[in-house]
Design brief:
Radius of gyration: 18 Å
CATH class: Alpha Beta
Number of helices: 10
Distance between the termini: 47 Å
Number of strands: 7
Helix content: 40-55%
CATH architecture: 3-Layer(aba) Sandwich
CATH topology: Rossmann fold
Bound molecules: nicotinamide-adenine-dinucleotide
Protein backbone atom coordinates (compact mmCIF):
# COMPACT_ATOMS: atom_id res chain seq x y z
CA UNK A 1 0.00 0.00 0.00
CA UNK A 2 1.45 3.38 -1.02
CA UNK A 3 0.48 6.77 0.37
CA UNK A 4 -1.40 7.56 -2.87
CA UNK A 5 -3.14 4.22 -3.15
CA UNK A 6 -6.44 4.59 -5.02
CA UNK A 7 -5.87 8.26 -5.88
CA UNK A 8 -6.23 9.73 -9.38
CA UNK A 9 -4.07 12.56 -10.68
CA UNK A 10 -3.20 14.76 -13.65
CA UNK A 11 0.47 15.64 -14.16
CA UNK A 12 1.36 18.62 -16.38
CA UNK A 13 4.86 19.34 -17.69
CA UNK A 14 6.78 16.08 -18.25
CA UNK A 15 8.95 16.86 -21.29
CA UNK A 16 11.84 14.43 -20.84
CA UNK A 17 13.54 12.32 -18.17
CA UNK A 18 15.02 15.42 -16.51
CA UNK A 19 11.67 17.21 -16.07
CA UNK A 20 10.64 17.60 -12.44
CA UNK A 21 7.16 16.43 -13.53
CA UNK A 22 8.62 13.12 -14.76
CA UNK A 23 10.05 12.45 -11.30
CA UNK A 24 6.71 13.36 -9.73
CA UNK A 25 4.79 11.11 -12.13
CA UNK A 26 7.04 8.12 -11.35
CA UNK A 27 6.82 8.74 -7.61
CA UNK A 28 3.01 9.06 -7.64
CA UNK A 29 2.57 5.82 -9.57
CA UNK A 30 5.07 4.05 -7.27
CA UNK A 31 2.94 5.24 -4.34
CA UNK A 32 -0.18 3.66 -5.82
CA UNK A 33 -1.80 6.45 -7.86
CA UNK A 34 -3.20 6.22 -11.38
CA UNK A 35 -2.49 9.27 -13.52
CA UNK A 36 -2.84 10.94 -16.87
CA UNK A 37 0.09 12.89 -18.32
CA UNK A 38 -0.33 16.07 -20.33
CA UNK A 39 1.83 18.58 -22.15
CA UNK A 40 1.59 21.10 -24.98
CA UNK A 41 1.00 19.46 -28.39
CA UNK A 42 4.45 20.68 -29.54
CA UNK A 43 6.10 18.75 -26.68
CA UNK A 44 4.68 15.49 -28.06
CA UNK A 45 7.11 15.71 -30.99
CA UNK A 46 10.07 14.65 -28.87
CA UNK A 47 8.43 11.34 -27.99
CA UNK A 48 9.79 11.18 -24.44
CA UNK A 49 6.41 11.71 -22.79
CA UNK A 50 4.93 8.75 -24.71
CA UNK A 51 7.74 6.55 -23.37
CA UNK A 52 7.01 7.74 -19.84
CA UNK A 53 3.29 7.14 -20.37
CA UNK A 54 3.94 3.58 -21.57
CA UNK A 55 6.21 2.86 -18.59
CA UNK A 56 3.66 4.19 -16.10
CA UNK A 57 0.56 2.83 -17.83
CA UNK A 58 -0.63 6.45 -18.10
CA UNK A 59 -2.58 7.93 -20.99
CA UNK A 60 -0.90 10.98 -22.57
CA UNK A 61 -3.36 13.77 -23.43
CA UNK A 62 -2.07 16.79 -25.40
CA UNK A 63 -3.29 20.15 -24.08
CA UNK A 64 -2.00 23.69 -24.40
CA UNK A 65 -2.36 24.91 -20.81
CA UNK A 66 -3.20 28.43 -22.03
CA UNK A 67 -6.20 27.13 -24.00
CA UNK A 68 -9.44 26.66 -22.04
CA UNK A 69 -11.00 24.29 -24.59
CA UNK A 70 -7.94 22.03 -24.41
CA UNK A 71 -8.11 22.10 -20.61
CA UNK A 72 -11.82 21.25 -20.56
CA UNK A 73 -11.23 18.28 -22.88
CA UNK A 74 -8.26 17.18 -20.76
CA UNK A 75 -10.23 17.21 -17.51
CA UNK A 76 -13.21 15.37 -19.08
CA UNK A 77 -10.98 12.75 -20.65
CA UNK A 78 -8.92 12.27 -17.50
CA UNK A 79 -12.04 11.65 -15.38
CA UNK A 80 -13.30 9.19 -17.99
CA UNK A 81 -10.00 7.29 -18.21
CA UNK A 82 -9.29 7.31 -14.47
CA UNK A 83 -12.87 6.43 -13.59
CA UNK A 84 -13.89 9.34 -11.38
CA UNK A 85 -13.04 12.73 -9.96
CA UNK A 86 -9.45 13.91 -9.63
CA UNK A 87 -7.56 13.76 -6.30
CA UNK A 88 -4.41 15.65 -7.25
CA UNK A 89 -2.95 17.89 -9.96
CA UNK A 90 0.64 18.99 -10.59
CA UNK A 91 1.24 22.21 -12.57
CA UNK A 92 4.91 22.12 -13.69
CA UNK A 93 4.88 24.60 -16.58
CA UNK A 94 7.25 27.43 -17.32
CA UNK A 95 8.48 29.22 -20.42
CA UNK A 96 9.73 32.74 -21.13
CA UNK A 97 10.08 34.05 -24.66
CA UNK A 98 12.25 36.96 -23.51
CA UNK A 99 14.62 34.58 -21.68
CA UNK A 100 14.68 32.24 -24.65
CA UNK A 101 15.51 35.09 -27.02
CA UNK A 102 18.09 36.44 -24.53
CA UNK A 103 16.46 39.86 -24.14
CA UNK A 104 17.85 41.82 -21.18
CA UNK A 105 15.47 42.80 -18.36
CA UNK A 106 15.72 46.48 -19.30
CA UNK A 107 14.79 45.75 -22.91
CA UNK A 108 11.93 43.25 -22.71
CA UNK A 109 9.27 42.86 -25.37
CA UNK A 110 6.00 43.29 -23.51
CA UNK A 111 3.86 41.22 -25.83
CA UNK A 112 6.28 38.34 -25.16
CA UNK A 113 6.06 39.11 -21.45
CA UNK A 114 2.27 38.70 -21.60
CA UNK A 115 2.75 35.35 -23.32
CA UNK A 116 5.22 34.33 -20.60
CA UNK A 117 2.71 35.23 -17.89
CA UNK A 118 -0.03 33.34 -19.74
CA UNK A 119 2.04 30.15 -20.08
CA UNK A 120 3.87 30.22 -16.73
CA UNK A 121 1.27 31.66 -14.35
CA UNK A 122 -2.20 32.39 -15.77
CA UNK A 123 -2.34 28.78 -16.99
CA UNK A 124 -2.37 27.79 -13.28
CA UNK A 125 -5.52 29.85 -12.81
CA UNK A 126 -7.00 28.42 -16.02
CA UNK A 127 -6.34 24.85 -14.87
CA UNK A 128 -7.89 25.50 -11.46
CA UNK A 129 -10.88 27.39 -12.88
CA UNK A 130 -11.56 24.51 -15.30
CA UNK A 131 -11.40 21.95 -12.47
CA UNK A 132 -13.56 24.18 -10.26
CA UNK A 133 -16.29 24.83 -12.82
CA UNK A 134 -16.50 21.15 -13.74
CA UNK A 135 -16.57 20.17 -10.06
CA UNK A 136 -13.79 17.77 -11.06
CA UNK A 137 -11.76 17.74 -7.81
CA UNK A 138 -12.53 15.17 -5.16
CA UNK A 139 -13.22 16.24 -1.59
CA UNK A 140 -9.87 16.87 0.19
CA UNK A 141 -7.94 16.82 -3.07
CA UNK A 142 -4.65 18.64 -3.58
CA UNK A 143 -3.21 20.93 -6.27
CA UNK A 144 0.48 21.90 -6.46
CA UNK A 145 2.34 24.40 -8.66
CA UNK A 146 6.14 24.72 -8.93
CA UNK A 147 7.74 28.05 -8.09
CA UNK A 148 11.11 29.65 -7.48
CA UNK A 149 12.49 32.03 -4.83
CA UNK A 150 12.88 34.77 -7.45
CA UNK A 151 9.23 35.49 -6.57
CA UNK A 152 10.51 37.03 -3.30
CA UNK A 153 14.15 38.03 -3.98
CA UNK A 154 16.00 39.50 -6.94
CA UNK A 155 17.82 37.09 -9.24
CA UNK A 156 18.63 39.29 -12.25
CA UNK A 157 19.03 36.56 -14.87
CA UNK A 158 15.65 35.01 -13.99
CA UNK A 159 14.14 38.03 -15.73
CA UNK A 160 10.35 38.16 -16.15
CA UNK A 161 10.02 34.63 -14.76
CA UNK A 162 10.35 36.30 -11.34
CA UNK A 163 7.06 38.13 -11.85
CA UNK A 164 5.51 34.95 -13.31
CA UNK A 165 6.34 33.08 -10.11
CA UNK A 166 5.02 35.89 -7.89
CA UNK A 167 1.75 35.69 -9.83
CA UNK A 168 1.69 31.88 -9.64
CA UNK A 169 2.11 31.94 -5.84
CA UNK A 170 -0.63 34.54 -5.51
CA UNK A 171 -3.02 32.40 -7.59
CA UNK A 172 -2.33 29.50 -5.21
CA UNK A 173 -3.37 31.61 -2.20
CA UNK A 174 -6.43 33.13 -3.88
CA UNK A 175 -7.75 29.92 -5.43
CA UNK A 176 -6.78 28.04 -2.27
CA UNK A 177 -9.44 30.06 -0.47
CA UNK A 178 -12.17 29.25 -3.01
CA UNK A 179 -11.26 25.55 -3.32
CA UNK A 180 -10.97 25.19 0.46
CA UNK A 181 -14.44 26.59 0.98
CA UNK A 182 -15.87 24.51 -1.86
CA UNK A 183 -14.67 21.04 -0.92
CA UNK A 184 -11.54 21.20 1.23
CA UNK A 185 -9.17 21.03 -1.74
CA UNK A 186 -5.67 22.29 -0.86
CA UNK A 187 -3.62 24.53 -3.16
CA UNK A 188 0.10 25.04 -2.54
CA UNK A 189 3.28 25.93 -4.38
CA UNK A 190 6.70 24.36 -3.92
CA UNK A 191 9.65 26.70 -4.32
CA UNK A 192 12.29 24.38 -5.72
CA UNK A 193 16.12 24.60 -5.79
CA UNK A 194 17.79 25.12 -9.17
CA UNK A 195 17.42 21.80 -11.00
CA UNK A 196 19.08 20.60 -14.22
CA UNK A 197 16.14 20.57 -16.65
CA UNK A 198 15.35 22.09 -20.04
CA UNK A 199 13.56 25.07 -18.45
CA UNK A 200 16.29 25.56 -15.80
CA UNK A 201 19.17 25.43 -18.24
CA UNK A 202 17.53 28.13 -20.36
CA UNK A 203 18.56 30.69 -17.71
CA UNK A 204 21.85 32.54 -18.38
CA UNK A 205 24.75 31.31 -16.19
CA UNK A 206 22.62 28.44 -14.83
CA UNK A 207 25.52 26.05 -14.06
CA UNK A 208 27.40 28.72 -12.06
CA UNK A 209 24.26 29.67 -10.20
CA UNK A 210 23.43 26.00 -9.56
CA UNK A 211 26.89 25.56 -7.97
CA UNK A 212 26.51 28.77 -5.90
CA UNK A 213 23.09 27.71 -4.55
CA UNK A 214 24.45 24.25 -3.80
CA UNK A 215 27.24 25.75 -1.67
CA UNK A 216 24.95 28.27 0.00
CA UNK A 217 22.40 25.65 1.10
CA UNK A 218 23.25 23.64 4.25
CA UNK A 219 21.65 20.55 2.70
CA UNK A 220 22.89 21.34 -0.81
CA UNK A 221 20.41 21.87 -3.65
CA UNK A 222 17.23 19.85 -3.23
CA UNK A 223 17.00 17.27 -6.01
CA UNK A 224 14.11 16.60 -8.39
CA UNK A 225 13.60 13.31 -6.50
CA UNK A 226 13.11 15.18 -3.23
CA UNK A 227 10.67 17.54 -4.95
CA UNK A 228 8.74 14.47 -6.11
CA UNK A 229 8.70 13.14 -2.52
CA UNK A 230 7.31 16.45 -1.24
CA UNK A 231 4.69 16.51 -4.01
CA UNK A 232 3.61 12.98 -3.10
CA UNK A 233 3.24 13.98 0.55
CA UNK A 234 1.21 17.06 -0.42
CA UNK A 235 -1.02 14.89 -2.61
CA UNK A 236 -1.45 12.37 0.20
CA UNK A 237 -3.73 12.35 3.24
CA UNK A 238 -0.73 13.25 5.45
CA UNK A 239 -0.96 16.98 4.65
CA UNK A 240 -4.68 17.66 4.93
CA UNK A 241 -4.18 20.85 6.94
CA UNK A 242 -1.67 22.48 4.58
CA UNK A 243 -3.04 24.96 2.07
CA UNK A 244 -2.31 28.37 0.52
CA UNK A 245 1.38 27.92 1.35
CA UNK A 246 4.60 28.37 -0.55
CA UNK A 247 6.87 25.56 0.71
CA UNK A 248 10.62 25.82 0.15
CA UNK A 249 12.23 22.60 -1.08
CA UNK A 250 15.61 24.28 -1.30
CA UNK A 251 18.03 22.68 1.16
CA UNK A 252 17.76 25.75 3.41
CA UNK A 253 18.83 28.33 0.79
CA UNK A 254 15.97 30.74 1.51
CA UNK A 255 16.97 31.11 5.18
CA UNK A 256 20.66 31.71 4.57
CA UNK A 257 22.40 35.08 4.65
CA UNK A 258 25.92 33.88 3.99
CA UNK A 259 27.59 30.49 4.04
CA UNK A 260 31.38 30.52 4.60
CA UNK A 261 31.59 27.73 1.99
CA UNK A 262 30.68 30.29 -0.69
CA UNK A 263 33.64 32.43 0.34
CA UNK A 264 35.90 29.39 0.34
CA UNK A 265 36.49 29.73 4.13
N1 LIG B 1 14.56 23.68 -13.15
C1 LIG B 1 14.64 24.58 -12.17
O1 LIG B 1 15.71 25.05 -11.79
C2 LIG B 1 13.36 25.01 -11.49
C3 LIG B 1 13.43 25.62 -10.22
C4 LIG B 1 12.25 26.06 -9.62
C5 LIG B 1 11.03 25.88 -10.28
N2 LIG B 1 11.01 25.28 -11.50
C6 LIG B 1 9.71 25.13 -12.17
O2 LIG B 1 9.40 23.77 -12.34
C7 LIG B 1 8.44 23.66 -13.39
C8 LIG B 1 8.85 22.52 -14.33
O3 LIG B 1 10.01 22.91 -15.05
P1 LIG B 1 11.26 21.94 -15.24
O4 LIG B 1 12.41 22.61 -14.60
O5 LIG B 1 10.92 20.54 -14.89
O6 LIG B 1 11.55 22.07 -16.81
P2 LIG B 1 10.90 21.37 -18.11
O7 LIG B 1 11.42 22.17 -19.26
O8 LIG B 1 11.20 19.92 -18.11
O9 LIG B 1 9.33 21.59 -17.91
C9 LIG B 1 8.63 22.75 -18.35
C10 LIG B 1 7.38 22.23 -19.04
O10 LIG B 1 6.46 23.28 -19.41
C11 LIG B 1 5.79 22.77 -20.56
N3 LIG B 1 5.04 23.81 -21.27
C12 LIG B 1 5.54 24.94 -21.86
N4 LIG B 1 4.54 25.61 -22.47
C13 LIG B 1 3.39 24.91 -22.24
C14 LIG B 1 2.02 25.11 -22.59
N5 LIG B 1 1.63 26.17 -23.32
N6 LIG B 1 1.11 24.18 -22.21
C15 LIG B 1 1.48 23.09 -21.48
N7 LIG B 1 2.76 22.86 -21.09
C16 LIG B 1 3.70 23.76 -21.48
C17 LIG B 1 6.96 22.24 -21.39
O11 LIG B 1 6.57 21.46 -22.50
C18 LIG B 1 7.71 21.47 -20.33
O12 LIG B 1 7.22 20.13 -20.21
C19 LIG B 1 8.34 25.04 -14.04
O13 LIG B 1 7.24 25.75 -13.51
C20 LIG B 1 9.64 25.68 -13.58
O14 LIG B 1 9.58 27.09 -13.61
C21 LIG B 1 12.13 24.84 -12.11
Amino acid sequence: MGILSGKRGIIFGALDDNSIASYVAKKCVAEGATITLTNAPVAMRFGEIQKLGAALNAEVIPADATNLEDLEALVDKSMEILGGKIDFVLHAIGMSLNVRKKKSYTDLKHDWMLKTFDISAISFHKVMQTLYKKDAMNEEGSIVGLSYIAAQRTFPDYSEMAESKALLESFARSFGYHFGIKNKVRVNTISQSPTMTTAGQGIKGFQEFFDYADKMSPLGNASAESCADLCASLFSDFSKGVTMQNLYNDGGFSSMGMNPAVLGL
